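Comment on this:
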Amino acid sequence: MSDQDVAIRVNKVSKTFKLPHERHSSFKSLLINFAKRKKGYERQRVLRGVDFEIKKGEFFGIVGRNGSGKSTLLKLLAGIYVPDKGDIQVNGSLTPFIELGVGFNPELTGRENVFLNGALLGFSHKQMEVMYGGIVEFAELQKFMDQKLKNYSSGMQVRLAFSIAIQAKTDILVLDEVLAVGDADFQRKCLQYFSQLKKSGQTVVFVSHDMESVKEYCDRAVLLENGRVTMIGAPKDIVPEYMSSFIEATDERNNELPFGISKAVSIDQSVLEITKVWIEDANGKPIRSLRKDIPHFFVKFNVKVRKDAEGIVPGVIVSNAASEFVVASNFKWADFTGNSNVSKGKTYQVMFKLLNVFEQGHYKVSVNVVSKEFTTFLGWKNEACAVYADKAHQTGAMVNPNYEVGMSQV
């Protein structure tokens, strides 16, 4: 991408902070720790070689879990921090809306804070007088501008701060969690303003945990995990990967009986062991998210056999966040006609091909093997792996099958 098309270029940026362990209570303790070469701090690497570009006129999202490095990255973009390694190139003026209350003085009135905040953004008093009416109108705080800011609610403060930021009319606008504070009416107004920004071709850097807004407004997004860029691309691809990061690591030793199965059933763990369970797409790639464009997926698991057995019946259960069964199937119910006899000392791979019919949410997958007579559990892995499905607002039920609709005049 040529320099004239780039609004922001982040080039292999790293940032580390020193976190003090404890304060020294005396000069003596300081000398003792120095003599022992004991450091009074630890280094926290927040960003590690972050690298991406934002085009001019692009609505660009930055997403990631808390602690992934988003706030530090924004402060680097705004010039509040300086990177330890790498460099950041910003082509044009930039207005950051990063933290509630930055640049505000609680002892001053709302009106005085408008002019103070404007000065911090580089505007003259005359320029702020021109913008003042629009700021107050958008914030809907006409009756409160002569009150001290310390008497404002947090929602009123964020409305005022956001109104100042958007009136600044700079080349690049940086917005951090604008929708996290404020009432429903303010959020609606923000969303309307986002639509205007997108139509006007304004360059916007947008950080939010509201994934629907990221999908709605962002042209592209970057996913941060542990201070590293793990993915850059279209929001439809980024959002499922972000949501799948909330899937808890499963314990492969979890051999509790599957949810809803009576403990009175017969159990024989001497026949076989389920050793590995995973989910993959049609290309054989392990996945943790089901995007809308994935028509089906595979649940697979390995079975290590200790004794010969005839006609084993592998099964799979997919449950939702409320531990309700959404899918429950096995080889018998699927009318499997192949050979399911197993021999001692061998390992077999079991496969279930499932349609991606799931409504948006997190799902856990359990697998099991029962005897030919359906009387004995030979092996199970309860909630052995998990997946996130991204199919919002297409159904109000647990599953979302393909279907056809039609209407004709009679």
The longest helix spans residues 184-200.
